[in-house]
């Protein structure tokens, strides 16, 4: 029998320590109860990230292994083990579960040590270390699934960790010096092969009433090499697995109430957005909102599978639903969210003969893609010029490629920039919205260096050092005006309580 399933993905902060993992287990067990209650609720398949900070730790470990810094390597490994043993002591209460969990953790840690040694060897022989590094980076998830599965079982709900890779990918491009260490570029999920593999691993568990707890982030090639979907890629892996299982919904459990109007770490009065269209959410994540990995919606949007973003620590809240446009819910809106993407550079190509830019745009972007750097935003073009924004760390290699292949063009670069995106499906149909955005920055004396617009909103390129100020003024002007707290010496109780609630708005 085919089960109607939903995918529940828990991020690194949600599984950050033993106590949090117990909270995750409680949520999973509640979903299982609901699915069995006959209320048409789908059966959960769980996807988890590594405990927060662990993938960084594994990449440091891999780097030490490659550079032969053995003492640091051993220290990092010891800390990693301790972190998981500390969590293990908290996640299960029953003795037999405790012993089983420790045994599973130990054998996984031994496998990690073997993979670190294999990486060391490859590095000593001067071979490319990309694939072996990906194998080491994958252990964070292989360890956290053990903790989560044990915690769920400890609550009396049958659960099984799946340490094997579910997602089948293309082989990655082997890193060259232009990529940061440990970033595996170009491993793309193969949908048909992934669906076959996912059903093979998950269906037998569902048939027995066992909840599968799968690793986010990692995959493997058809020939068996471990790959990853890139840093912060477990949101993406959850939707890849969700699409492979044709699930009803993917829920991303994280540490905020849902998708907010802006980054809550930067702006205190960010508000919850109950609904977002796929296009709005895609733009939001592309322009810097960490809450969703930029590729998250690719597997699910064409199938109209909704993605819900919820808070692990406040599970009674419904969160944000990202889904197809529903009339009256996602209808045209002004600015709904403001984001900032930092550390960018603006590259401008100018032709000396005053013409030729449109014809040569294809060549420019092909060269950028060849060095592994897609433009973040294309800002402007005319007969003889073309300007676009890229990640600052990729600028040098793009410039070198452009100068090499397009020698008769003048290439200029302005660094230390950021993109502030004002996002909303009706943003540009209201003539005042773009005007308000530009005026807000002008009031703050913030120069708009370049800009781009589309049906989903506008993007303003500003100096990086002014970007947080720009974000604040755009959010204040377009979304949530700050209401000054007015104090009246003889205010009545009612008036003063009104003033206080307004100041909190
Ligand atoms: P996880 O560990 O669950 O994957 P992340 O740290 O990757 O969580 O993403 C959640 C974080 O994203 C939040 O803690 C929040 O600080 C940040 N964030 C940035 N922009 C937004 C936004 N617009 N809405 C919600 N969260 C945001
Ligand atoms: N553990 C991976 C990382 O830290 C994937 C993720 O958490 O999204 O990049
Ligand atoms: Mg994340």
Provide an overview of this structure.
With 505 residues, the protein is α/β, with parallel strands linked by helices. 42% of the residues lie in helices and 20% in strands. The protein is built from 14 helices and 17 strands. Strands 3-5-2-1-8-10-11-9 form an eight-stranded mixed beta sheet, sandwiched between helices. It has a six-stranded antiparallel beta sheet with strand order 13-14-12-15-17-16. The protein has a three-stranded mixed beta sheet with strand order 4-6-7. α12 crosses α13 (467-478). The longest helix has 30 residues, at 95-124. The relative contact order is 0.09. Mean pLDDT is 90; it is low at 490-505. Residues 12, 49-50, 55, 140, 217, 231-234 line the site of aspartic acid.
Outline the fold blueprint.
Elements lengths: L4 E6 L7 H19 L6 E6 L5 H14 L2 H22 L3 H30 L5 H8 L1 H16 L4 E4 L4 E3 L21 H17 L3 E5 L2 E4 L4 E3 L5 H11 L4 E6 L20 E3 H9 L20 E5 L8 E4 L13 E15 L5 H14 L6 E5 L3 E7 H14 L3 E15 L8 H12 L6 E5 L2 E7 L3 H12 L14 H12 L1
Parallel strand pairs: 1-2, 1-8, 2-5, 3-5, 4-6, 8-10, 9-11
Antiparallel strand pairs: 6-7, 10-11, 12-14, 12-15, 13-14, 15-17, 16-17
Helix pairs in contact: 1-3, 1-6, 2-3, 2-4, 3-4, 3-6, 4-5, 4-6, 7-8, 12-13
The protein binds adenosine-5'-diphosphate, aspartic acid (ASP) and magnesium ion.
Adenosine-5'-diphosphate binds next to loops.
């Amino acid at each position: 029998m085919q089960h109607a399933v939903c995918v529940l993905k828990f991020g690194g902060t949600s599984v950050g320590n033993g106590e949090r993992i117990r909270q995750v287990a409680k949520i999973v067990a509640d979903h299982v109860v609901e699915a069995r209650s006959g209320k048409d609720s789908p059966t959960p398949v769980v996807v988890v990230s590594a405990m927060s900070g662990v993938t960084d730790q594994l990449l440091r470990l891999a780097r030490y292994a490659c550079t032969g810094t053995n003492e640091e390597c051993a220290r990092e490994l010891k800390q990693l083990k301790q972190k998981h043993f500390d969590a293990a002591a908290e996640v299960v209460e029953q003795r037999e579960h405790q012993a089983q969990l420790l045994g599973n953790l130990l054998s996984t840690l031994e496998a990690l040590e073997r993979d670190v040694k294999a990486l060391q060897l490859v590095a000593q022989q001067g071979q490319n270390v990309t694939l072996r590094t990906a194998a080491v980076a994958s252990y964070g998830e292989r360890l956290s699934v053990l903790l989560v599965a044990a915690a769920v079982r400890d609550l009396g709900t049958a659960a099984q960790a799946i340490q094997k890779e579910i997602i089948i990918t293309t082989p990655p491009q082997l890193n060259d010096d232009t990529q940061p260490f440990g970033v595996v570029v170009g491993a793309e999920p193969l949908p048909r092969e992934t669906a076959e593999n996912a059903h093979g691993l998950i269906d037998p568990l569902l048939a027995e009433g066992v909840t599968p707890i799968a690793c986010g982030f990692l995959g493997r090639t058809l020939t068996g090499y471990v790959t990853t979907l890139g840093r912060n890629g477990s949101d993406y892996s959850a939707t890849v697995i969700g699409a492979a299982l044709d699930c009803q919904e993917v829920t991303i459990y994280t540490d905020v109430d849902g998708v907010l109007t802006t980054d809550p770490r930067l702006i205190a009065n960010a508000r919850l957005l109950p609904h977002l269209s796929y296009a709005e959410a895609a733009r939001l994540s592309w322009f810097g909102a960490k809450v969703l990995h930029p590729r998250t919606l690719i597997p699910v949007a064409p199938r109209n599978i909704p993605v819900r973003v919820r808070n692990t620590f406040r599970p009674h809240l419904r969160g944000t639903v990202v889904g197809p446009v529903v009339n009256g819910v996602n209808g045209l809106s002004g600015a709904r969210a403001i984001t900032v993407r930092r550390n960018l550079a603006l590259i401008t190509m100018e032709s000396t003969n005053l013409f030729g830019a449109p014809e040569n745009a294809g060549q420019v972007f092909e060269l950028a893609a060849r060095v592994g750097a897609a433009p973040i935003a294309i800002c402007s073009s005319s007969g003889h010029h073309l300007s676009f924004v890229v990640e600052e760390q990729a600028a040098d290699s793009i410039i070198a490629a452009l100068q090499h292949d397009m020698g008769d063009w003048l290439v200029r670069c302005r660094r230390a920039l950021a993109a502030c995106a004002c996002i909303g499906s009706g943003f540009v149909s209201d003539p005042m919205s773009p005007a308000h955005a530009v005026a807000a920055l002008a009031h703050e004396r913030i120069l708009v260096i370049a800009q781009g617009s589309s049906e989903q909103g506008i993007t303003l390129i500003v100096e990086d050092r002014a970007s947080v100020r720009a974000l604040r003024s755009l959010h204040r002007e377009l979304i949530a005006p700050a209401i000054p707290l007015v104090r009246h010496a003889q205010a009545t109780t009612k008036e003063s309580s009104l003033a206080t609630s307004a100041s909190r708005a």
